[in-house]
Amino acid sequence: MKLSFINARVKPIFYKYLGGGSMRLLVLEDNLTLAQGLKTSLIKAGYAVDLIHDGKQGLALLKYQAYDLLLLDLGLPSIDGIDLLKELRAFNSALPVLIISARDQLDQRIHGLDLGADDYICKPFGLDEVCARVRALLRRGTNQTKSILNYADLTLDTHTRRLSFKGQLIELHRREFTVLEYFLLNIGKILSKEQIAEHISSFDDDINPTAIETYVSRLRKKLDESLNLKTVRGLGYLLENE
Ligand code: CA
Predict the structure, then answer these.
(1) Could you tell me the distance, in angstroms and rounded to a whole number, from the CA of residue 66 to the centre of ligand 1?
(2) In angstroms, what is the span from residue 135 Cα to ligand 1's centroid?
(3) CB 130 within 8 A of CB 71
């Protein structure tokens, strides 16, 4: 559904499937090799990621699709990354932005940060370092200080993608894991099925909101004792404090 919308509005568009996760990232990078490397690393790190190679197309997308973080190259076709950042901040001041660029001069960095980037990493960089910075920026947005999320006797490691109950590893389907992670990042908030689906989808991995019901019921079955997950009629779900 989202895909046809994009094709209609900003044709032609180049998107790539990057897998599912509880946080949705947009990578704006025109170097295909680098973009591919970022893609692989970010999938492994458990994020849902959309990839765009063109500045104007990226900006158009950012106007209607909610993302949790933007990785932004500065030298992009059709619109420069710095100009894109200026325009982005005019309508979205909250989106964390990590600039990835070869422009490593100090004044460029300061300029990027002044315009509202949250962090800056210079090429060439290690993909592990990018993932670490992405984690740090996303934690900032959720008041989370570590990569470990604790809830009752559950421990979810957002880095290794493992869940344990009283120290025992629990097997979860990838999607069950990401849905649980999203709940744990939003304790005390009512989340609609649509909202959850939106955050764990990417273009080629579009998750139907009704599928969320299935993941929730499986999570309840597996984690019944420890998960205080309520259904709020007509609104969605609420994970209450442990
Ligand atoms: Ca570039």
Answers:
(1) 23
(2) 23
(3) yes
Per residue of the chain (242 residues), what is the pLDDT tens digit?
343 333 333 333 333 333 345 688 999 999 999 998 998 899 888 888 999 999 999 999 999 888 999 999 988 999 988 899 999 999 987 899 999 987 666 677 777 788 888 998 988 889 999 999 998 888 876 656 667 888 988 999 887 888 998 889 999 988 899 899 999 988 999 999 999 998 888 776 778 899 999 999 999 999 977 889 999 999 999 999 87
Euclidean distance between CA atoms 65 and 198, whole angstroms = 9
Distance 56 CA to ligand 1 centre (A): 14
> What's the 102 CA to ligand 1 centre distance in angstroms?
8
How far apart are the CA of 5 and the centre of ligand 1, in A?
26
- Centre of ligand 1 from the C-alpha of residue 63, in Å: 22
Residue 191 phi, psi dihedral angles, 5° rounding? -115, 125
